[in-house]
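One such given next:
>
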Amino acid sequence: MTFKVDFKVRDYECDLQGIVNNSVYFNYLEHARHEFLAHKNIDFAALAEQKVNLVVIRSEMNYKDSLRPGDAFYVEVEVEKVSKLKFAFHQKVLRSQDDKLMLDAIVTGTSVNERGRPFLPEEIEQLFV
């Protein structure tokens, strides 16, 4: 099942061209991933307190069209395990009024322990069961 988070473009997220600045999409995607993890009962902050850090190791974004001030949109999130130590979030940004695809992304991550060594904690492994 695809997880979905609703948003609305705020004026200050736009550049001089009147469209959402490309860097802002990173924030949208990150917030949606954090909401997805919370929905799956994974507390990002609690993991960090336990010296387990979820980290992005690669981001691929394909911009399809531009969001504008006031646009309502949503971000879809799905996750897959891609190797013993890596997982990938497949994300889409879609404009709400017509479900038009504005951006698709693959954000690959892992988790590292307090010594910076990659591993997948049980909480993350549970996402793939």
The first helix runs from residue 24 to 39. Helices lie at 24-39, 44-49, 122-125. The mean pLDDT is 96.
